[in-house]
Amino acid sequence: MSGAVPGVSEHERRTDIVRVLERDGQVTVSGLARRYGVSLVTIRKDLTELAVRRLLRRIRGGAVRAEPGDEGTFEMRLRHRAAAKRAIARAAAALVHDGDAIALDCSTTCYYLAEELRRRRGLVVVTNGLRAAQLLGESDATVVLPGGTVRRSSWSLVGEIGDVFGGRGRVSRGFFGVRSISLRLGLMELSSEETVVKRRLAAASRQVYGLFDSSKVGLFALHSFAAPDRITELITDRDVADDVVTGWSGKGVPVRRTGAPT
C-alpha cells in the first residue's frame, strides 16, 4: 500500500480507505495506520464504522471489499472522484439542448449532469434517480419518474417500472453511469434491480452515452444493460488507458477523455 497521506480528517481518511479497497481489494489495520499516521485503535474504529455502513467487510487484521449487491451509500459515492465526475458531466451537458427529451439514471455522475442542466429550458427528463429528480424539479424541466420501489442506498426507483414510454416515442439521448464496461457485453451494472430500469431507459433512448471515471475500468459487474452496438459514445476522464480507447474504437464506439489528469 503506497502513498502515505498523514494529517487528513476522519471523513477524508474513511473515504480514502474505501478508494484503496476498491483498487486493492484488501487492506490491513497496520498498513492503514502507517498510511495515515494514526493508531491501530483509530483504524479499527474506521473499519468498524465503514462495515456498519456496508462499505467493506471486516476480516481478521483488516478488511476486504463489501460483498456484491451493495455499492455503498449515494453520499459516499458522490464524493468519490468528484472532480472527474463533474468534468464528465460538463462534457455530457454540452450534448443537451433546450427542449430535448432525455433519460438520466440514478448514478452520481448523472446527478452531477443534472446540476449542469438546471439552466436549460424546456427539458423533459425521465429518470429513476430521486436526487436528480429533486434537483431538476426546482428548474424549468419536466421531470418524469418511472415508478418502482425506492432503493435507499442509491436513492433510486428500481424493479419492474411502469410503462412510461408506451405510445410516447423515444427520448433523444440517455445518459448512464456504470459499474463497469465490457467490450463483449457493453455497459455493466452490479445490482439486478438497477439493471432492469437501466435496460428500459436505454432501450427507449435513440442515443446511449456511458459516463464513468477511470476507476470503473476492470471492476467486477454482473449484468449488461446496453450492448456495445447500442452505445453512441463513452465519456470518461483522462486517466483511462490508451488501450481501453483503442479497444472500444475497434468496436466503433468513440471514447472521449475529459478533464485534468488525477
* Total domains: 2
Fill in the CATH topology of the largest domain.
Rossmann fold
Major beta sheet summary: 7 strands, parallel
| Major sheet: arrangement of strands | 6-5-4-9-12-14-15
CATH class category label of the largest domain? Alpha Beta
Description:
The protein has helices spanning 10-24, 29-36, 40-52, 74-79, 82-93, 108-116, 130-137, 192-203, 242-250, and strands at residues 26-28, 56-59, 62-65, 101-104, 124-127, 142-144, 149-151, 156-158, 171-177, 180-182, 186-189, 205-211, 223-226, 233-237, 255-258. By secondary structure, it is of the alpha/beta class. The chain folds into two domains: 10-67, Winged helix-like DNA-binding domain superfamily/Winged helix DNA-binding domain (Arc Repressor Mutant, subunit A, Orthogonal Bundle), CATH 1.10.10; 75-258, Rossmann fold, CATH 3.40.50. A seven-stranded parallel beta sheet has the order 6-5-4-9-12-14-15, sandwiched between helices. A three-stranded antiparallel beta sheet has the order 1-3-2. The chain has a three-stranded antiparallel beta sheet with strand order 10-11-13. Helix 7 links the parallel strand 5 and strand 6 (142-144). Helix 5 (82-93) packs across helix 6 and helix 6 runs parallel beside helix 7. The longest helix has 15 residues, at 10-24. It is globular, with a radius of gyration of 19 Å. The mean pLDDT is 86.
